[in-house]
Amino acid sequence: MKIREVPFIAMGGVYEKDDVAAAIGVISAVAEQSGSFFPLPEETQFQDMLAEHEGARRAVAVNSCGTALDCCMMALGVKEGDEVITTPLTFVCTAGTAVARGAKVVFADIDPVTMNLDPAAVMEKITPRTKAVIPVHFTGLACDIDGFDRIAEKTGIPVIYDAAHAVGARYRGKPVGNRGKASCYSFQSNKNMTCLGEGGAITTDDEIFAEKVRQLKTFGYVYGTSLGVASIGFNYRMTKVQYAVGITQLSKIDRILKIRQERRQIDSHAAGQGTRRHFRRGWRPVLHTRRIYNHESFRHAYREYSCGKPSVSRGRRSVQEQAGRGHRLVFRLLRTENRLSGNLCQ
Ligand SMILES: Cc1ncc(COP(=O)(O)O)c(C=O)c1O
């Protein structure tokens, strides 16, 4: 079976003059011996800004979403013999993070309309060994968070959201970063917001959990009047230059998301009109947002734009059914970044 029928479009972040100045500022200070690569104060500033933007009490920046998920698994004590439930429709690392701890990955089905993990399907897979659930806000569309809250309340099983695609997404009018036990973000270079190629973060309202993952990312160090090592940890930090650029990236993310939203509407309209400028023959955008989340309180971050190709062309329903079964589903990436970066430079 031929799986990929649309070209992969390499994307990169929207880098503007302020990002360039931020990066050069750090390097120049070191070159002129008026500064160093010690990450403060940029690290704290970036984390505080991110926490506020994503509606969470705390944000802990790390060097990727993969390490963010790893830290969460370690902080929850996921180990051999445990089960972790997640979606089959995601990037390999969502499931891999559980395998890395020795746990068994249990896949539950997706909702065929939103393509996000379905809480009802998760409920059916819960056993006494279930240690965590990892839903993904797939392509930047928030999943059924209220449904997962109900599972957590009923079973006590922590929910860790893979929010790699979802910086700036809104669920019922609110950011998603304080939901569940924690959310893990990616700032890798093809995401909507990037930190010079790599980056990630964990957001949470749980201060104790935040402190655990903070220690994991930085050799278990605790700072204060006396510096000490309180637990076993690793070095999962970003660099000072990345934090500096993360600050400028965050200050423009809402503008970028607005542009992506507008582009999505133009593309969907073109597809509806039969223009299909960007679509190969037979492919259609999956119009789930119109049916389910057709309300401005749900902001889709459009890190990707889902398309499906019905094998028998019977209109929209058929496309969604195909997508739900995972048949011949591909993702068309919104071509905003590189073209826009030229226009957006001040
Ligand atoms: C859903 C999902 N989770 C996790 C990741 C991993 O992100 P990172 O490259 O920052 O580790 C990705 C990367 O594309 C992703 O798409």
Key terms:
346 residues, alpha/beta, Aspartate Aminotransferase, domain 2, 2 domains, four-stranded mixed β-sheet, three-stranded parallel β-sheet, 11 helices, 38% helix, disordered C terminus, binds pyridoxal-5'-phosphate
Number of domains: 2
CATH fold-level label of the largest domain: Aspartate Aminotransferase, domain 2
Total number of beta strands: 14
Give me the CATH architecture of the largest domain, please: 3-Layer(aba) Sandwich
CATH class of the largest domain: Alpha Beta
> Count of helices?
11
Which regions contain 5 or more consecutive residues with pLDDT less than 50?
6-10, 273-279, 287-294, 310-346
Cross-sheet strand order for the largest sheet: 1-9-8-5
Based on secondary structure, the structural category is alpha/beta
Explain what this protein looks like in three dimensions.
This protein has two domains: 17-246, Type I PLP-dependent aspartate aminotransferase-like (Major domain) (Aspartate Aminotransferase, domain 2, 3-Layer(aba) Sandwich), CATH 3.40.640; 253-344, no CATH class. It is 38% helix and 14% strand. It is built from eleven helices and 14 strands. The strands form five sheets. Strands 1-9-8-5 form a four-stranded mixed β-sheet, with helices on both faces. It has a three-stranded parallel β-sheet with strand order 3-2-4, covered by helices on one side. Strands 12-13-14 form a three-stranded antiparallel β-sheet. A hairpin with a 2-residue loop joins strand 6 (170-171) and strand 7. It is globular and about 60 Å long. The protein starts with 16 loop residues before the first helix and ends with a helix. Bound molecules: pyridoxal-5'-phosphate. Pyridoxal-5'-phosphate (PLP) binds next to helix 3 and helix 4. Pyridoxal-5'-phosphate binds next to helix 3 and helix 4.
